[in-house]
Amino acid sequence: MPAPFPADWSRALVVAAHPDDIEYGVAAAVAVWTAAGKEVHYLLATRGEAGIAGMPPAQAGPLREEEERRSAAVVGVTEVEFLDHRDGTVVEGPQLRRDLAGAIRRHRPDLVVTLHGGDTWTGPDVTPAAWNSADHRALSRSVLDAVADAGNEWIFPDLVDEPWSGTQYVAVQTIGEPPHAVDVTSGVEAAVASLTEHRRYLEVLSPDVPVEEQARQVVDQATLTEDGGRRVGFRLYWG
Which CATH superfamily is domain 3-238 in? Predict the structure, then answer.
């Protein structure tokens, strides 16, 4: 059984590559946190402009940004920031780390949360494996580095905000058997409603399945455990 997730924090920054990424499970934990009085902000590396087949990026980007803002509001998040990296070509390296470190300094979180950045979405013994997005892989590693960068005044000296070393934990969404988990039983319905706000994206993704049905299937898959509980798992790192 995973250990309970720490509660000795007040402000979190959830970092993802694209609109809808957070809603694939982590939003259920966000709903629980905000209901408990925690302050949660979202940071998106891209606007998801390459994510809707048949829709040009110039049209898709603003639409997906608006869907994400509505989605965040459902689970109690009022501040959503976008970094404007190009969807599909996010690159792990100093520029991404700089932008993330700058955002961490602005938001000054006690907890930084990011999503699964492993090579695959399946366990090591499962073949064929489901390959993870290049953007997800690049972002997850860069977030871990940027937390340290945010507290070092000499790494990116051009950043205007004061260094921030107050992050206590970095939590990375974990598939399989997680070391820590959040009981999200009370957040499931909010998570389903949150993902449903990505209506246009989901309509194109699976046109033959109603959006509400898609959202519930996704949240069930992300939160239901073998013992019938509802949990979202994380691996924790010191900030």
Answer: LmbE-like (3.40.50.10320)
